[in-house]
Structures are given as structure tokens and as C-alpha cells.
Amino acid sequence: MEITYLQKLKNNPTIFSESIRGVSETEIAAYEKKLKVKFPKSYKEYLFLAGDYDGDLLMLRGYSGIRELGNPAFQEHLEAVKKKAGVKIKRPYWVFTGEEDCFDFFYLDENTENPNVYTCEWAFGTAEVESLNQTFSDYIDNVIDDSKAHYKGLYG
After folding, report:
1. Which of 5, 15, 24, 93 could form an SS bridge with 137, CB 3.0 to 4.6 Å?
2. How far apart (Å, rounded) are the C-alpha atoms in residues 12 and 144?
3. Residue 127 pLDDT
4. Helix, strand and coil in the chain, % to nearest 5
């Protein structure tokens, strides 16, 4: 796969001690078919480079591998958690990293190769969606920078 948006990730396969591992283009296409979605190019690049294992990248919201995110049990769990929290997002979207009380996502209907990123958090019965004011590639670039700074701060 030609990498257009995630050059920084391609050039930083090891942030601290663990290297990222991607999935094949064939597997990406199979997930798109299985999940009935069309991923934007920048996210496909992420999957190709780090979609199996994100190494020491500190993805801000927990799970980020396609095998976890695309797992029907995880999808069902996420839907149940969102319903309980009162999350209502009417547009088609894809959660690319998440945990129990929040997730980061992009909309699938923006018709762009590098969509804007949003976050959804809930507490005290209120769910809030807000833009992170960055594209997916900017988000990943920032995660790389933050991860490097974190490990440098811990280990010099």
C-alpha cells in the first residue's frame, strides 16, 4: 500500500520497545465487507501499518486493533455501553479507539480520505460529542509525539 497520510507512523515503527504490526490489504478489504463499511484511505494506512498491534503507541482510548474493534462481541458490547450512556449519533461512523466511558471516531459519510476526528465521552448520564479539530492523520501524528514524550519522560 502506498502511504500518503501516515508517513510519520511509517517512519516510526518502534516508539519505545515494541514495534507496530499491520494487517494486509486483503484483510482490510475483508473487514470492510464483513462490517459493511468503506474506510477512508488514512485509516486503511493505519490498519496496514499498525492495525494488528499498535506497539507502544499510547492510543488515547484503549482498544485500537481491527481484530478487537471488528469483533462482533466487541461491537455488541460497545453498542450496549453506548445505549446505556445515552449516546445518540445519527450519522454513520467508525470507532477507531475506545474503552468503557469514551471513544474516538470519525464519520464515514464525509467523503474524504482523511476525515476529522471526534470524541464521545459520557459521565453522570450525559453523553457529549465534540470535534478534536484535527484530521485522522494529525491525530496519529500527535499520538506518536505524545507517546515519544511519555517514554522519554519515564526513561530519559
Report:
1. 5
2. 8
3. 80
4. 40, 25, 35
